[in-house]
Design goal:
This protein is of the alpha/beta class. The protein has 8 helices and 17 strands. The radius of gyration is 22 Å and the shape is elongated.
Length: 310
């Protein structure tokens, strides 16, 4: 295919798709991603995963603060198609009109469900059994355009944010490689989204990383899954120390202690009391330490049993 494609994306899930498109022979003439961020105590400047991948692939790169006010790069590249996947900005009508073809967006949900920035986290948090990727027309509204193609994927009980992101990245690439040639040939028919079924998911805020002890066992486990392994959900120990919990499983339905109490921390088991039973905390991390399995954690921490987390 000779159509000139500008790819817009930011996180790792997008970088993997960009690499796959290039390897498959797609004519990517430029890449747009979010500007560099200052991170950590040392104020280190860090590029997005898509920026780093663009460098690796020797692709022209643009990192505007606000693309809607700084898009000469786009004009100069004369694209046939703008293709976005988790870029993070809503594009103006002026930008959307630049390509030969109507611009497209890959979105990691079965639209109109979970429009917005965190569809993968919401699907896990809500205990969904299925998700997927939608290829939709970009419009000047949040993930509201007509849908051209969809691929579905089961969510397995062992899936978390990391594993599901990897699967959806592969699925998005598969969908793009199958659908784009058909789109350029005019063989795909757009389907309008049902607005009455639309739901929205905003960016996960820092305070939402604090795991909720008011949830059922199932809800607590799903919240852990939605945050693992990045950034990781946490509870606080009595002294205020953060205890990250990446993996939890239902242990039993016993209610014999106050909610939040560690009723057992021996050998390979750490049991946390919740309102409808107890969950086994299986992968944990203290500040400055590596993630550990429960047994290894118990070998190094001897005052967890009997304490109440909050």
């Amino acid at each position: 295919m000779n159509e000139r494609i500008i790819f817009l994306g930011t996180p790792a899930i997008s970088a993997r798709v960009l690499e796959g498109l290039v390897k498959a022979g797609m004519n990517i003439v430029g890449v747009i991603t979010k500007e560099d961020k200052v991170r950590g105590r040392n104020n280190r400047i860090e590029e997005s995963p898509v920026a780093m991948k663009a460098h690796e692939l020797s692709l022209p790169l643009h990192k505007p603060h606000k693309l809607n006010k700084d898009f000469s790069f786009l004009v100069e590249k004369k694209p046939d198609l703008l293709l976005t996947f988790a870029y993070g900005q809503i594009l103006s009508d002026e930008i959307l009109a630049l390509g030969t073809y109507k611009p497209l967006n890959l979105h990691a949900s079965l639209l109109p469900k979970y429009r917005g920035a965190a569809p993968i986290q919401y699907a896990l948090r809500n205990g969904d059994k299925e998700t997927g990727v939608s290829l939709m027309k970009m419009v000047h509204a949040l993930d509201a355009g007509d849908v051209y193609a969809v691929k579905k994927l089961p969510i397995l009980p062992e899936d978390n944010y990391t594993t599901l992101s990897d699967k959806l990245s592969s699925l998005a690439l598969e969908l793009a490689l199958e659908a784009l040639p058909k789109y350029f040939r005019g063989e795909l028919s757009p389907v309008k989204q049902e607005e009455s079924k639309a739901s929205f998911c905003s960016t996960i805020k820092k305070e939402e990383e604090h795991l909720s002890l008011s949830l059922s066992c199932e809800g607590f486990i799903n919240q852990c899954r939605s945050l693992a392994y990045t950034p990781g959900g946490y509870l606080l120990r009595p002294d205020g120390e953060i205890l990250k919990i990446f993996t939890a499983e239902k242990a039993n339905e016993e209610v014999s202690a106050p909610i939040g109490k560690i009723v057992l921390a021996k050998k390979k088991q750490i049991l946390l009391q919740l309102k409808d039973g107890q969950v086994a905390l299986e992968e944990l991390q203290r500040p400055g330490k590596e993630m550990m399995k429960a047994g290894d954690f118990n070998n190094g921490v001897h005052d967890l049993e009997g304490s109440e987390l909050r």
